[in-house]
């Protein structure tokens, strides 16, 4: 509940790596976020410091990331910020990860074509007996409607 949700706008820095795990699909890639500022002396925009995040996507989002993202593309990532500190070979390392909730192309910097993903049925539902389609046909010789004393009015479709 008290997680830090962030929205990061940047570029895909590494090709997404897709894995099928026992818990479901997972994908990760590095996101480069470079700040920009107005340099008054040069009277132009300049690049500031670049932050790198490891973005983690799971389940259907992971599948869609693997099919949609490539290095250099501008994206917007919304997710939970996880900052980790660890010691490796006697040195202290800090990494910033984003556990993604949503990822999309940044349309302020380019165009994109959306394609709805097809849903894959879970394995449990595939093995279950399928319900037969109901028979909507009226049997031959069966009266369609009882005769009504009222006269039917034609209807107009607009």
Task: Give the structure's gist in a few sentences.
The chain has helices at residues 59-68, 123-127; strands at residues 5-12, 17-21, 24-39, 44-58, 74-88, 91-105. It is mostly beta strands and 158 residues long. It has a five-stranded mixed beta barrel.
SSE blueprint and pairings:
Layout: E1 5-12, E2 17-21, E3 24-39, E4 44-58, H1 59-68, E5 74-88, E6 91-105, H2 123-127
Parallel strand pairs: 4-6
Antiparallel strand pairs: 1-3, 1-5, 2-3, 3-4, 5-6
What do these coordinates show?
- The chain is mostly beta strands and 158 residues long.
- The chain has 2 helices and 6 strands.
- It has helices at 59-68, 123-127; strands at 5-12, 17-21, 24-39, 44-58, 74-88, 91-105.
- Strands 1-3-4-6-5 form a 5-stranded mixed barrel.
- The longest helix has 10 residues, at 59-68.
- It starts with a strand and ends in a 31-residue tail after the last helix.
Main traits of this protein?
mainly beta, five-stranded mixed β-barrel, 2 helices, 6 strands, 9% helix, extended
> What is the number of helical segments per DSSP (H or I, 4+ residues)?
2
- Give the strand order of the largest sheet, numbering strands 1, 2, ... along the chain: 1-3-4-6-5
Kindly report how far apart the N and C termini lie.
51 Å
Question: In percent, how much strand structure appears in the residues?
Answer: over 45%
Quickly give the structural class: mainly beta
- Shape, per Cα inertia axes: extended
* Annotation, overall tally of beta strands: 6
How is the main sheet built? 5 strands, mixed, barrel
Radius of gyration: 27 Å
